[in-house]
Amino acid sequence: MHPATYSGGFLGLVVLILDLIAIFEVINSNRSVTAKFLWSLLIFLFPILGLVLYFLFGGREEHNSGYEVIA
């Protein structure tokens, strides 16, 4: 088998991980419930397009309160 045949599985895994990170970020943001639902639905239904649109137009800086240091 040619090594390029396995690249789809690897790229799919990368997209899945990035989508889960984006959905986790949306859920933990201070957006309204409707906005959280719509962004999550967009990312879930259109994984690559939704991810790109979220990172370009999601206003991440405005809606995320930042991460707290644990220790």
Automatic annotation (TrEMBL):
<feature type="domain" description="Cardiolipin synthase N-terminal">
    <location>
        <begin position="17"/>
        <end position="59"/>
    </location>
</feature>
<feature type="transmembrane region" description="Helical">
    <location>
        <begin position="6"/>
        <end position="26"/>
    </location>
</feature>
<dbReference type="GO" id="GO:0005886">
    <property type="term" value="C:plasma membrane"/>
</dbReference>
<keyword id="KW-0472">Membrane</keyword>
<protein>
    <recommendedName>
        <fullName>Cardiolipin synthase N-terminal domain-containing protein</fullName>
    </recommendedName>
</protein>
<keyword id="KW-0812">Transmembrane</keyword>
<dbReference type="InterPro" id="IPR027379">
    <property type="entry name" value="CLS_N"/>
</dbReference>
<feature type="transmembrane region" description="Helical">
    <location>
        <begin position="38"/>
        <end position="57"/>
    </location>
</feature>
<keyword id="KW-1003">Cell membrane</keyword>
<keyword id="KW-1133">Transmembrane helix</keyword>
<dbReference type="Pfam" id="PF13396">
    <property type="entry name" value="PLDc_N"/>
</dbReference>
